[in-house]
Amino acid sequence: MAAGDPQHSSVRPVGPVYLVERLPSLHQELMGLLRRLDEADWSRPTACALWSVKDIVAHLLDTALRRLSFMPAADTGITSYADLVAYLNRLNAEWVAATRRLSPRALMDLMDVTAPQVHGFFRSLDPHARASFGVAWAGEESSPVWFDIGREYTERWIHQQQIREAVGAPGLLGREWLYPVLDIFMRALPHTYRTISAEPDQSIHFAIRGEAGGDWTLRRESQGWSLFTGRDDHPVTRVSLDQESAWKLFSKGLSPEAARRSVRIEGDPRLGEPAFGALAVMA
Hints:
CATH class of the largest domain: Mainly Alpha
Strand content: 5-15%
Radius of gyration: 20 Å
CATH architecture of the largest domain: Up-down Bundle
Number of strands: 6
Helix content: 40-55%
Shape: globular
Number of helices: 10
């Protein structure tokens, strides 16, 4: 059944999300927070593995410098998604270990130098051209620039949120900040469901509650699963959760037990269960 038919009148295919102009404001929010931290705050543990607040800031600096300096590494031995994750984890660990020698002031100064350069670089790109990096967690070897930049926005928002939670600062949870994160994260669903069978035209409704929430529909089509915004009138399964649980689920911030307490599945449970494995980060 086509998307224009009455049954699907409230849904439309997901489209590009242009977030390059949101990055400078996100950076300003981060720097304003960092300048208010005291010495003890920089050492506070975070939800990000074994990293402190200072380690996350160092990692954000690393990702900016990689964008400005990237050259393909020789003989990385990357032949699979698992190889890519292991390679990135090694790069991250090496950098964080080395930058523990730097002071918070030095890290902040370097962040302020590199951020405008990265933002300018992103602005110089055609958003519909092929990006240097595919969004692997969405199952893409090749992605448009706008999606790559969207992935960058989500990573920077997540890490800033982890810092905010660690130091007890208010989160950036308003719709202007969080809805783009959720909208990008939902693009992981077709890849998450790639091995899940369903009858043609069956759909799953994903409802995220809260100011930054919304409705998305995953529909089984001839070539696989396709993502739409809005809600089909007759989904076979409905998956609902609040906005905080949603961003944490997609970024490994919820334990399996907490996820099952937070996510409500109505209808065919077989089509709801894969949602617990949705990831929009490299892991």
